[in-house]
Amino acid sequence: MKKFIIAILGVLYCFSLLVAQSVLPFKNSNEIKIYNNKQLQMKAPFVGGFSAPQFSDVDLNNDGIKDLFVFDRQGKKISTFINSGTVGEADYAYAPEYETLFPARLEHWVLLLDYNNDGLEDIFTYGVPGGIKLYKSYYENDSIQFTLVNNVLEYESQSGFPLNIYVSPADIPAFADVDLDGDIDVLTFEQFLGSNLEWFKNVAVEYNLPEDSLYFIKEKTCWGNFLENAYTSDIALDACGGLKLNQQNESLKKHPGSSILAFDYDNDTDTDLLLGDISSSKLNFLLNGGSPGDAHITGAYNWLHSDNVLDTYIYLSAYSLDFNNDGKLDVLCAPNTTQISETKNQIAWYENTSDDTTTDYKHHKENFFTNHVLDFGSNSYPAVVDFDNDGLMDIAVGVKYWFNRADTSQQGIMAMLKNVSTANGLAFELVDTNYNNLYNLNLLGIRPAFGDLDGDGDADMITGDNRGFLHYFENIAKANEPMQLQLNTLNIDSITIGSNASPTLFDYNRDGLLDIICGERRGAFHYLKNVSSNTEIKFSYENNFFGGALVKENGEAIGSSAATIVVEDSTNIAYLIANNYNGNLYLINNLDNEIFTLNNSIFNNIKTAGEGGVAVYDFDKDGFLEMLVGNINGGLNFYTQKAEITSIINNVKNKIKIYPNPATNTLYIDNANTIFQYKIFDCMGKLILKNNSIYNEINISHLNKGLYILKLQNGANFSFHRFIKN
């Protein structure tokens, strides 16, 4: 047990100030259950949502089963999933512990495949400027690791000098053994005109080079004898003869972006294609009627050329992997743009149901990603409120944008997750994705904060919008009925924060009225004092650089601060946890001072996909806080201070209390009617003190100032308590 506790508490770190030491760290957790609106328990609710995901299979844990790697172009976010390996099922468990094993600063596109025939998937990714970077994979303690092989892949030009294999940052190239000679080739659109597909042939096998060698030549300047229109996604067959003429026409030199999937659709050994284009809402399927060494595209169709045509707003990309463990390569499709596009249910799975006589792909409108991942739109902002007055705090999630395909508008919307927890653990059910029909108000973003503003005993709402205005919604529900929000005041007192107003409510000046502390685009905070009367909700604009706190990284033009106030029950100390534009969390304390203390290091090293809100609450009343963090991709990430403690040991809840807290010389144990054993750990998880026989007090006078964890045990029952030594 000692080893376990030290391992769990070892993630703690000491802050330089005593106030900061009152904050226990948070760790990513899967302990909470989420049910979707069909009563189905979601398997990966807290991935964080998706915007422009790219999919690859990879064995993360060296168990011989291909797991799932997802890189999202929006926010440069990596997500990793462990595959159960159940035949015929897409059954994955979110496993964020593998995400940090991948190289830092991956961007634009990332594809995993085995380039050196060692059975391990390696990383091909965007390399500056406009090239391909390669990482080689290996295992260490059964976890995948990577080492850089090449910053830029090059080919031997006709002059004998090496040149960069160009790939636009907006593109996704294809990597495949095009000629079936046993090594990986590259297909990518030409740099300038971008209409012709170039084949960079790997001749390592022909030159008898080692299997981990990459030696490229430009084998074809117009692979497949087709051209893609420079301005649209139209395909011209048997058109390479017109390539020279087009290259001479300067007005046609335009390549905004295309995605390529090279795969063998009909199992005839040649390479077929799925092409996405930045100007199109569909995928082009190109059928190869040639041979591995001499490609000839003979047909171009919408994918699929049947009743299952996939159609999103703009720019799709396709990926080939065995998604459901049946031994056949399926196709996953998703948007490939960070611009305006679908923000929900935008991932399609085409199951390969082919047999020996027919080729067929079945479209699953509902799949793992639509049924098992919380995804509300773009830029999610969680908040805590008991919306149904059942005594349990629920989770509201506002979003900056929900994309309306009908008119391409982007409006704010708010979802609601009902707390359905039991003695067996925390659980929430997604009961509404447009709570109170707020979408119809055409607000430009909803960033909610809840509190009793009119003194009637129920929760009202303040929300900020993208323009920097604040709006007051009164809860007009009758006593003990679910929250019913009515817009009372649009643009409160005509106050504008600037843009991206993100409020939180807190009685800062301790006058019994909830004030507003509001984040904004610059990354600063504004203080609005509540000066309401019995008849009017009113705020006084006090400070536009509250506490001198700025959560903007050096060199960044945007901060987009969004914070929540946390008050520690054991110390009554308030502090801010703030999210920013890059998805980095910061701890801000000493809120009673004129200048707050901003801890410059990223709080608990928590980094999300970027620009969302944060909410903190002790949902299960066990003394450890839970934290929800929103992000640019519209989902949520979940963290807890308990780490793995409650999932592995029997942490008995009891009424034992310790006081005073903070303490100087003696800790007293209240409601103790038996003799305890105790252990005290410091903020690095090191065992400092233990005793096998205490009753109701512990001498701590010799301890250094700081945060400690006290473990009290009587037989099989034990509990954990945190305290501060002054």
Q: Helix coverage percent of residues? A: under 10%
What spatial order of strands do you see in the largest sheet? Answer: 12-11-16-15-14-13
Distance between the termini: 29 Å
Indicate the overall shape: globular
Mean pLDDT: 87
Question: Count of helices?
Answer: 4
The largest sheet is: 6 strands, mixed
Q: List unreliable stretches of 5+ residues.
A: 1-22, 644-654
In percent terms, what proportion of residues is strand? 35-45%
Number of strands: 52
> Radius of gyration from the CA trace?
29 Å
Structural class: mainly beta
Write the layout of secondary structure elements.
Blueprint: H1 2-9, E1 27-28, E2 33-35, E3 53-58, E4 67-72, E5 77-83, E6 92-94, E7 110-113, E8 122-127, E9 131-140, E10 143-150, E11 154-156, E12 162-164, E13 174-176, E14 185-189, E15 197-202, E16 216-220, E17 226-228, E18 235-237, H2 243-248, E19 258-263, E20 272-277, E21 283-288, E22 297-302, E23 316-321, E24 330-335, E25 348-352, E26 361-364, H3 368-372, E27 378-385, E28 394-404, E29 409-419, E30 427-432, E31 447-451, E32 460-464, E33 470-475, E34 485-489, E35 502-506, E36 515-519, E37 525-530, E38 539-543, E39 562-567, E40 574-579, E41 585-589, E42 597-598, E43 614-617, E44 626-630, E45 636-640, H4 645-648, E46 657-659, E47 666-670, E48 676-681, E49 687-694, E50 697-699, E51 706-714, E52 717-725
Parallel strand pairs: 2-30, 11-16
Antiparallel strand pairs: 1-45, 3-4, 4-5, 5-6, 7-8, 8-9, 9-10, 11-12, 13-14, 14-15, 15-16, 17-18, 19-20, 20-21, 21-22, 23-24, 24-25, 25-26, 27-28, 28-29, 29-30, 31-32, 32-33, 33-34, 35-36, 36-37, 37-38, 39-40, 40-41, 41-42, 43-44, 44-45, 46-47, 47-50, 48-49, 48-51, 51-52
